[in-house]
Structures are given as C-alpha cells and as structure tokens.
Amino acid sequence: MNFQNTWYVIERNQHFETISYEALALLPEGSFVMLQNFETHREALEEHKRLVKLAIDDAKRKLAD
After folding, report:
1. Quick check: helix, strand or coil at residue 21?
2. What pLDDT score does 65 carry?
3. d(CA 28, CA 37)
C-alpha cells in the first residue's frame, strides 16, 4: 500500500474525520486516534458515514432509555 496516497478515518476532539496522509502527518502526535486507513477516499468516506450512523443510533437509544 502506498501510504502517501491513502486516506484515514480518525477520531479527534470526539468527532470522526476523514483525512489524507499529508494532513495526518501535520497533526500533533497524540491529538487523534487513527481508526483505519483506506486505499481510496471513497472507501474512507463510506466508513466515516457508517461510524456516524452508529453514533446517531447509539444516541437515540440512550435518549429513549
């Protein structure tokens, strides 16, 4: 895998983000949690979308309790 052309789904400041390798390299060490890397931007965005939906469903469940 060519890491300089990969995309990352990270969690930073309690939010999910999809960023490129170049952007990831500029972040301060320890300021984020890398969840997964992907070969394409589209794959990373699909995972980002899935994680947000899970978080929304979890929040709805908590509100219903």
Report:
1. helix
2. 85
3. 18
